[in-house]
Write a structure and sequence with these properties.
mainly alpha; about 80% helix; MFS_trans_sf; folic acid binding; symporter activity
């Protein structure tokens, strides 16, 4: 009897110890799958040879295509509205008379104004959306600043298709550019891609992967500009515009499906998450620190980035509005 009572007492004490251990390990066991799932996502992304590169080349192609098509379409519409024909925008005007040259200069001025309006509508909202949405990627994940610009480019392309097929006024193009700017445009997309690459690469691999992304951007824009230059002559504006639309649609699909673009941010508790105001204060503090010439380096990099953006944004419409007149035109 005494042995039986000792065995029962031991069993009860052992059961209580097991319950205490289970209660102590319960919260850790509940949070452990979330951490493992997120870490597993980052590790899966690290093992992939291609992550955001495919989306980058698609967005670059659609961006270059829409910029080229919009510039040439605006030029054609301006020529049609002012002079009732489009023959003057189809060939070289280098060897024409003074009257024709004056007409061509007027078309260039109006086309340049429309290009300025469109670029401004996309650039100004993107400054604020990039700053806000880019900082929120630390909380909501890296896929957000990549997916939103893709949706913005898709809306811009749909707007251009409506204007081309329905012959709407050129002012309707502004709505698509504003929507694209509010979605972050190319600046937020590049920031999201660079942050994604930073998450999945080591310090030695990072620079190479970032350079590859920049090369893909310029290669995609240039290749699409050259290709569409020939396609517009044979297919027209409407059919040619479906190529950028297809590219940007594929980018939305790739960025929107989780198993195609794996999330790399580990979920944080509410105590660890920072507010937008705190992030903005950190950005301001970057420019307040003057040790080791850090301020001068930041200003230099900011100036270089600004000049590169001016070259890209200003260089895309130039061949469309000025490429068929002196001193760029060739004999045809």
């Amino acid at each position: 009897m005494a042995g039986k009572e000792k065995r029962d007492t031991f069993d009860e004490e052992e059961a209580e110890d097991l319950m205490d251990c289970a209660s102590q390990e319960g919260p850790a066991a509940m949070t452990e799958p979330i951490i493992k799932e997120s870490e597993c996502g980052r590790e899966r992304a690290r093992r992939r040879w291609v992550t955001v590169e495919f989306i980058v080349i698609l967005i670059a192609a659609s961006y270059g295509g829409m910029a080229t098509l919009s510039g040439q379409y605006i030029r054609q519409r301006v020529s049609l509205d002012l002079y009732g024909n489009t023959t003057q925008s189809n060939g070289s005007q280098c060897n024409q008379g003074n009257a024709t040259m004056e007409i061509e200069e007027e078309i260039q001025k109006i086309t340049s104004k429309w290009s300025l309006y469109l670029n401004t509508c996309a650039a100004l909202p993107s400054i604020f959306s990039t700053l806000i949405i880019g900082t929120l990627s630390e909380r909501y994940g890296r896929r957000l600043p990549i997916l939103l610009p893709c949706i913005g480019f898709l809306g811009q392309c749909v707007g251009q298709l409506c204007v081309v097929y329905l012959s709407l006024p050129l002012s309707y193009l502004l709505f698509g550019n504003v929507f694209c700017g509010l979605s972050g445009s190319l600046s937020l997309f590049m920031a999201g891609c660079f942050a994604y690459i930073t998450d999945i690469t080591t310090e030695k691999q990072r620079m190479v992967r970032i350079v590859v992304i920049e090369i893909l951007i310029f290669a995609g824009i240039g290749a699409m500009q050259i290709g569409l230059g020939y396609m517009i002559k044979s297919l027209g504006f409407g059919l040619s515009l479906w190529i950028p639309f297809t590219a940007v649609l594929l980018s939305v699909i790739n960025a929107g499906i989780p198993w195609l673009l794996v999330e790399t941010i580990v979920p944080k508790s509410k105590e660890e998450q920072r507010d937008l105001a705190e992030v903005l204060k950190d950005i301001i503090n970057l420019f307040r620190v003057k040790t080791d010439n850090r301020l001068y380096l930041l200003l230099t990099m900011f100036a270089v980035s600004l000049l590169v953006g001016i070259v890209i944004q200003g260089g895309l419409p130039s061949p469309c509005s000025m490429g068929k007149d002196n001193p760029f035109a060739g004999t045809q």
